[in-house]
Amino acid sequence: MATNRTFTMLKPDAVEKGHIGAILEKISASGFRIVAMKLTQMTTKDAQAFYAIHSERPFFADLVEYMTRGPIVAAVLEKDNAVEDFRTLIGATNPADAAEGTIRKMFAESISENAVHGSDSDENAAIESAFHFSGREMF
Ligand code: UDP
């Protein structure tokens, strides 16, 4: 995968609150092109695998419960410097620390239910995109 792509999920809290449209609007207005997108729901196994790096953390069980409780929007986004620019757009993990105008500041409630995911490296962007999409689902 090219390094100008990142992977995102609009998490269950954002979908439940009806924020899909507003968040996608902000993503598009910030210069990201949608390369792949779908509404889907992670199974417990999916979430445990996706967040395996956090399996020893105290919040892991709650994270898996949260990420599987309802549908998410999974998407692959393209832009120069996509990974870093998207992390800037979403803001800090804890919305209380997120900068004004960031997606987490605007739409997230807590460090656990923080509305949106963004890959933290080009390598993880490729792995996470492949986790949710086949090659012919990316345009
Ligand atoms: N998380 C949590 N409690 C914490 C830290 C993280 O519930 O103290 C959750 C939160 O949903 C976060 C996800 O675990 O988005 C992954 O954590 P990471 O540190 O990778 O943050 P991110 O890359 O999503 O900003």
Automatic annotation (TrEMBL):
Q: Which GO terms describe its cellular component?
A: cytoplasm
Keywords (A to Z) from UniProt: ATP-binding, Cytoplasm, Kinase, Magnesium, Metal-binding, Nucleotide metabolism, Nucleotide-binding, Phosphoprotein, Transferase
SMART domains for the chain: NDK (SM00562)
Catalytic residues as annotated in Swiss-Prot or TrEMBL: 117
Q: Which domain of life is it from?
A: Bacteria
- Asked if the Swiss-Prot or TrEMBL record annotates the protein with the keyword ATP-binding, the reply is yes
Among PROSITE patterns, the record links this protein to: NDPK_LIKE (PS51374)
Predominant subcellular localization, coarse grouping: cytoplasm
Name the coenzymes or cofactors required: Mg(2+)
For this protein, the Enzyme Commission number is 2.7.4.6
Tell me the compartments it is located in. Answer: Cytoplasm
Q: Which molecular function terms from Gene Ontology are attached?
A: ATP binding; metal ion binding; nucleoside diphosphate kinase activity
- Enumerate the catalysed reactions: a 2'-deoxyribonucleoside 5'-diphosphate + ATP = a 2'-deoxyribonucleoside 5'-triphosphate + ADP; a ribonucleoside 5'-diphosphate + ATP = a ribonucleoside 5'-triphosphate + ADP
- Does Nucleotide-binding count among this protein's keywords? yes
Enumerate the Gene Ontology biological process terms. CTP biosynthetic process; GTP biosynthetic process; UTP biosynthetic process
Question: So where does ATP get bound?
Answer: 11, 59, 87, 93, 104, 114
Domain called Nucleoside diphosphate kinase-like: residue spans: 3-137
Similarity remark: Belongs to the NDK family.
UniProt function note: Major role in the synthesis of nucleoside triphosphates other than ATP. The ATP gamma phosphate is transferred to the NDP beta phosphate via a ping-pong mechanism, using a phosphorylated active-site intermediate.
Partners and quaternary state? Homotetramer.
> Which NCBIfam families does the UniProt record give?
PRK00668.1, PRK14545.1
Could you identify this protein by its name?
Nucleoside diphosphate kinase
Lineage of source species: Bacteria, Pseudomonadati, Bacteroidota, Flavobacteriia, Flavobacteriales
